[in-house]
Amino acid sequence: MNPLIQTFLSGTWGTLALFGVTLIGCLIGGTILAAMRVSPVPILRGAAAAYVDVVRNTPLTLVMFFCVFGLPYLDIRFGSTAGMNSFVLACIALTAYTSCFIAETLRSGIATVPVGQAEAARAVGLGFGQVLGYVVLPQAFRTVIPPLGSVIIAMLKNTSIASAFNNRELISAMRNAIEVRGDIVIPLLLATALIYLVLALGLGRVFAYLEKRMVILR
Amino acid sequence: MSAPTQVLFDEPGPRARRLNVILSVVSVVLLLGLIAFVVWKFSDAGQLEYAKWEPFTYAVIQQTLLAGMWATIKVAIVATILALVVGVVFALLRLAPKKAVSLPATLVLEVFRGVPVLLLIFAMFLVFGNEIGSFWSVVFGLTLYNGMVIAEIIRAGILAVPRGQSEAAMSIGLRSSQTMRLILMPQAVRAMMPTLIAQVVVLLKDSALGFIVTYQDLLYQVNAIGRSYNNLLPTFIVGAVLFIIINMVVAAIARYLEKRMSQKTAATTAPDKGTD
């Protein structure tokens, strides 16, 4: 196979791997943060609010800088190879950053669920965790599918920042390709843009479908 | 927004109160444990020794950090102004009545909005880098991406102004350019101010990407100082605090403007959700 195409294929795979792992991580992290922010324990509410405020106001580059160069100082390393290590660290940074935005989106979704829902749930004897898990969050998730989609598409584009921290993904594939073939810089740039566009548009279609099937308009 | 979140749980009774206290204590212990672990590891790595922090008392280092901070702010300011211009132009192009104008504009907008801003910065740097340098590469990259996002924000704002406004303007004899400039634009910008400022904060945060194309911004200087004095973590913490301060200031300005704007009449930007 053409070595250029191979480079781009492995780059696309790297981007998708970063995206997939981060997607799962930030949905879990965002849900936990959102749950903490509405929980009856004041300290959990404060901790989550402080975390969201600080990390949301920090550039992702800085978050990733800290995770990739800082966490090794704390003896936190993953995997046997350097490539694996920087992959996991980049995923942690992306998850830590995106979780804040997911949490904020979910919180606005929770606010749109009618008060009567939670009141009825409590009236039949559900505890806080049950109210949130069975009644409020499922509705909140379905209400915020459109904004959640833009957060997740932004995250897909943010995976490009991992290229500066020894990760193999589309941008670093493009830079490798440009080093080999300096004569076709512009076609290589356009090819990279095209792959990102296809990925972003595909993701947009997925969310449009989910929205059509599941969204609750309020 | 705070009212509905308060009703997810009842006023705690004796058992719930005891449980809450226990949970509070446990979470405090966990948080303190985490902080203690981080501090312990830092001191283990020798990052908390006075020698590592001493460089920040040097005038040279302070000046370098301030220069980096100014470089970051400069990029953000120039890119914001250019992005606003690009945003207004593209919003108008997309709203143009002629398909021949609005269709290409839509296409260009979707392309630049759909790719990572880093790719745009790289493209500027690789294609024009020799002529325009890293500063303008970062500025143009940020402008292209954020300009398109701002164009969409302004367009949504203009579309949200009630139809009667433009109809009334037309009926008293304003031309369509006058209607846009005198009637629609002021209302749209006022209604969209919070979203616009949020996008400026995003732009400011993205300006940290300049470090990747060797623009000597705050993060670049943090990296350089950290490597030459072997105190990466302390420098990082100082840099992060500076970054967060800049962003918090912009966010505070945003809140202030939002409050001021909300006192005046503004077009509704979303279908009324109705408050419980």
From TrEMBL, chain A:
<dbReference type="GO" id="GO:0043190">
    <property type="term" value="C:ATP-binding cassette (ABC) transporter complex"/>
</dbReference>
<feature type="domain" description="ABC transmembrane type-1">
    <location>
        <begin position="12"/>
        <end position="207"/>
    </location>
</feature>
<keyword id="KW-0472">Membrane</keyword>
<keyword id="KW-0813">Transport</keyword>
<dbReference type="InterPro" id="IPR043429">
    <property type="entry name" value="ArtM/GltK/GlnP/TcyL/YhdX-like"/>
</dbReference>
<feature type="transmembrane region" description="Helical">
    <location>
        <begin position="86"/>
        <end position="106"/>
    </location>
</feature>
<dbReference type="GO" id="GO:0006865">
    <property type="term" value="P:amino acid transport"/>
</dbReference>
<comment type="similarity">
    <text>Belongs to the binding-protein-dependent transport system permease family. HisMQ subfamily.</text>
</comment>
<dbReference type="GO" id="GO:0022857">
    <property type="term" value="F:transmembrane transporter activity"/>
</dbReference>
<feature type="transmembrane region" description="Helical">
    <location>
        <begin position="54"/>
        <end position="74"/>
    </location>
</feature>
<keyword id="KW-0812">Transmembrane</keyword>
<dbReference type="InterPro" id="IPR010065">
    <property type="entry name" value="AA_ABC_transptr_permease_3TM"/>
</dbReference>
<keyword id="KW-1003">Cell membrane</keyword>
<dbReference type="InterPro" id="IPR000515">
    <property type="entry name" value="MetI-like"/>
</dbReference>
<keyword id="KW-1133">Transmembrane helix</keyword>
<dbReference type="InterPro" id="IPR035906">
    <property type="entry name" value="MetI-like_sf"/>
</dbReference>
<feature type="transmembrane region" description="Helical">
    <location>
        <begin position="12"/>
        <end position="34"/>
    </location>
</feature>
<protein>
    <submittedName>
        <fullName>Amino acid ABC transporter membrane protein 1, PAAT family</fullName>
    </submittedName>
</protein>
<feature type="transmembrane region" description="Helical">
    <location>
        <begin position="184"/>
        <end position="208"/>
    </location>
</feature>
<keyword id="KW-0029">Amino-acid transport</keyword>
<dbReference type="Pfam" id="PF00528">
    <property type="entry name" value="BPD_transp_1"/>
</dbReference>
TrEMBL record, chain B:
<feature type="transmembrane region" description="Helical">
    <location>
        <begin position="135"/>
        <end position="161"/>
    </location>
</feature>
<feature type="transmembrane region" description="Helical">
    <location>
        <begin position="107"/>
        <end position="129"/>
    </location>
</feature>
<comment type="similarity">
    <text>Belongs to the binding-protein-dependent transport system permease family.</text>
</comment>
<dbReference type="InterPro" id="IPR000515">
    <property type="entry name" value="MetI-like"/>
</dbReference>
<dbReference type="InterPro" id="IPR043429">
    <property type="entry name" value="ArtM/GltK/GlnP/TcyL/YhdX-like"/>
</dbReference>
<dbReference type="GO" id="GO:0022857">
    <property type="term" value="F:transmembrane transporter activity"/>
</dbReference>
<dbReference type="InterPro" id="IPR035906">
    <property type="entry name" value="MetI-like_sf"/>
</dbReference>
<keyword id="KW-0472">Membrane</keyword>
<dbReference type="Pfam" id="PF00528">
    <property type="entry name" value="BPD_transp_1"/>
</dbReference>
<dbReference type="InterPro" id="IPR010065">
    <property type="entry name" value="AA_ABC_transptr_permease_3TM"/>
</dbReference>
<protein>
    <submittedName>
        <fullName>Amino acid ABC transporter membrane protein 2, PAAT family</fullName>
    </submittedName>
</protein>
<feature type="transmembrane region" description="Helical">
    <location>
        <begin position="236"/>
        <end position="257"/>
    </location>
</feature>
<keyword id="KW-1133">Transmembrane helix</keyword>
<keyword id="KW-0813">Transport</keyword>
<feature type="domain" description="ABC transmembrane type-1">
    <location>
        <begin position="69"/>
        <end position="254"/>
    </location>
</feature>
<feature type="transmembrane region" description="Helical">
    <location>
        <begin position="21"/>
        <end position="40"/>
    </location>
</feature>
<feature type="transmembrane region" description="Helical">
    <location>
        <begin position="182"/>
        <end position="204"/>
    </location>
</feature>
<feature type="transmembrane region" description="Helical">
    <location>
        <begin position="75"/>
        <end position="95"/>
    </location>
</feature>
<keyword id="KW-0812">Transmembrane</keyword>
<keyword id="KW-1003">Cell membrane</keyword>
<dbReference type="GO" id="GO:0043190">
    <property type="term" value="C:ATP-binding cassette (ABC) transporter complex"/>
</dbReference>
<dbReference type="GO" id="GO:0006865">
    <property type="term" value="P:amino acid transport"/>
</dbReference>
